[in-house]
TrEMBL record:
PROSITE patterns named among the record's database cross-references: G_PROTEIN_RECEP_F2_1, G_PROTEIN_RECEP_F2_2, G_PROTEIN_RECEP_F2_3, G_PROTEIN_RECEP_F2_4
Bilayer-spanning residue ranges: 140-163, 261-281, 301-322, 343-364, 376-399
Record's keyword annotation contains Cell membrane: yes
Similarity field: Belongs to the G-protein coupled receptor 2 family.
Name of the protein in question: Gastric inhibitory polypeptide receptor
Organism the protein comes from: Astyanax mexicanus (Blind cave fish)
Record SMART domains: HormR
A biological process term (GO) from this entry: cell surface receptor signaling pathway
Membrane topology category: Multi-pass membrane protein
UniProt superkingdom: Eukaryota
Domain G-protein coupled receptors family 2 profile: 39-122, 138-400
Record-level Gene Ontology MF annotations: G protein-coupled peptide receptor activity; gastric inhibitory peptide receptor activity; peptide hormone binding
Subcellular location: Cell membrane
Signal peptide interval: 1-18
Length: 519
């Protein structure tokens, strides 16, 4: 038999699912184990020492053993600190005392002990082991999801901060949303790492009391608090995205800069208002383990209620936006197939941005489900939450045409600079070769990620065909926001196959001017 400590501690420690067993928490069990140990040591010190050859009395971190007579099997009642002691109170733990006065050992040189009579119900134990296995698979899944989200969001955040032309209110909100997703992923992965570190399979018997002490759990509790704040901030930045998009589509006069400070207060400040009271209540009335188990659900509702309200508000905003899109698309008198396609595309794009899928999980709470339904609910919740950041980074950065355009221009400028340097080295001249050509430029400001089908005065479309013909991937020092301009180049440059001059079309200053209220 294994010589590890109580099966309870092993079971409760795996995957940090220290759930209550028979109404006892892990902390309660450890406290009773300490009392059992103290009572055992007092008894061992007070009992008289026998004469002759005998196996020495001891406490092996599981049961209290008296002196043993050689060539006999010593049995003691199942320890009373076990949470399921009422089920096994008639059972015994067994040891063998050898003829040499030494306790019998197994092949691993550990003292042999048979505590099978003190184990929990085998059927229930198999169910718990099966649930632990499922949770292990879930943990691998969401660890992969959060890791991919963390990597993609970090790259997307760098891109949005790197290019100046992408700096506007809408992208400032995106960067804060990306940052909240990043903090959420980091906090969850950090908390899991601390929980795994602080809840090993107790191979060393001396670790039983130290690992589960309040001092050892302080770092885990801090990580748990930070995780609750980051998760709350993530939900409220999803709410900010919904509020911003709603204001952009509904309000006739919308000053973005005046609202941005309010957005910051909602996104980063609102979670403090419910995380701090939760910390106080947990510390005063439920200061157990790593604060990851909610015995009194009233304290958990301190955090859950504001998050549910944010989810519901975003859901109503989503419905309002869909209604606006339907009216806009109908007004354009589109064909029915195109109409359905654009509406579906806009809807699917908004779902990850606003976190609409959370409505389903808000209704199906963990305490209301059990068995297979609970595992299915948990799987989809963990899957969507962990991969949502990756999906948002792809939709609102990597496949965004505005971002792709800026990256393409940066790449072409870099290639142009290399080509000019190569020509200068080869010819020794600072004058590039080529003919005369007319170059037209269109310098556009940051454009919003509006759903397809919105009106042009609300969602800024691409430049008209005439302006697109005159676009040139080169930034002129005299460029002004929202204006098309031209200048005559003395030479036509053809470098590395890139034909720089545009066709003979010039935009006029003021043509296709963008909405001044946006950037």
């Amino acid at each position: 038999m294994k010589s590890t400590p109580a099966v309870l501690l092993l079971t409760l420690s795996v995957l940090c699912r220290a759930e209550c067993v028979c109404g006892k928490t892990v902390k309660d069990t450890v406290q009773e184990w300490n009392r059992y140990q103290n009572a055992c040591l007092v008894k061992l010190n007070s009992d008289p020492t026998p004469s002759g050859l005998f196996c020495r009395r001891m406490f092996d971190m599981y049961a209290c053993w008296p002196d043993g007579v050689p060539n006999t099997t010593v049995k003691v009642p199942c320890p009373w600190y076990l949470p399921w002691h009422d089920q096994v109170h008639t059972g015994y733990v067994l040891r063998e005392c050898g003829p040499d006065g030494q306790w019998h050992t197994n092949n691993t040189s550990r003292t042999w002990r048979d505590h099978s009579q003190c184990s929990a119900d085998s059927t229930k134990q198999r169910e718990e082991e099966y649930q632990i296995l499922i949770l292990a698979y879930f943990r691998v899944m969401y660890t992969v999801g959060y890791s991919l989200s963390l990597t993609s969001l970090s790259l997307a955040l760098i891109i949005l901060l790197l290019f100046r032309k992408l700096r506007c209110t809408r992208n400032y909100i995106h960067t804060n949303l990306f940052a909240s997703f990043i903090l959420r992923a980091v906090s969850i992965l950090t908390r899991d790492a601390l929980l795994t570190r602080d809840a090993p399979e107790f191979r060393d018997n001396s670790d039983v009391s130290s690992v589960l002490s309040d001092q050892a759990l302080s770092g885990c509790r801090i990580a748990q608090v930070l995780m609750q704040y980051c998760v709350g901030a993530n939900y409220f930045w999803l709410l900010v995205e919904g509020l911003y998009l709603h204001n952009l589509l509904v309000l006739m006069v919308f000053s973005e800069n005046s609202y941005f400070c309010g957005y910051l207060a909602i996104g980063w400040g609102a979670p403090v208002l419910f995380v701090v009271p939760w910390i106080v209540m947990r510390y005063l009335y439920e200061n157990t383990r790593c604060w990851e188990i909610n015995e009194n659900m009233a304290y958990w509702w301190i955090i859950r209620t504001p998050i549910l309200l944010a989810i519901l508000v975003n859901f109503f905003i989503f419905i309002r936006i869909i209604k606006i899109l339907i009216s806009k698309l109908k007004a354009h008198q589109m064909r029915y197939t195109d109409y359905k396609f654009r509406l579906a595309k806009s809807t699917l794009t908004l779902i990850p941005l606003l976190g609409i899928h959370e409505v389903v999980f808000a209704v199906m709470t963990e305490e209301q489900t059990e068995g297979v339904l609970r595992n299915v609910n948990l799987f989809f919740e963990l899957f969507f939450n962990s991969f949502q950041g990756l999906l948002v980074a792809i939709l609102y950065c990597f496949v965004n045409k505005e971002v792709q355009s800026e990256i393409k221009k940066k790449w072409q400028r870099w290639r142009l600079g290399i080509s000019v340097l190569d020509d200068q080295r080869n010819t020794g001249s600072h004058t590039p070769q080529g003919g005369t050509g007319l170059q037209c430029h269109y310098d556009h400001p940051c454009q919003p990620d509006c759903p397809e089908g919105s009106s042009s005065h609300l969602c800024l479309d691409a430049p008209p065909p005439s302006a697109q013909l005159s676009l040139h991937q080169h930034h002129h020092p005299g460029a002004k926001k929202g204006k098309a301009y031209c200048y005559i180049s003395a030479k036509k440059q053809v470098l590395n196959g890139i034909d720089l001059p545009a066709p003979g079309h010039c935009g006029v200053e003021g043509v296709n001017r963008y909405s001044e209220s946006y950037c």
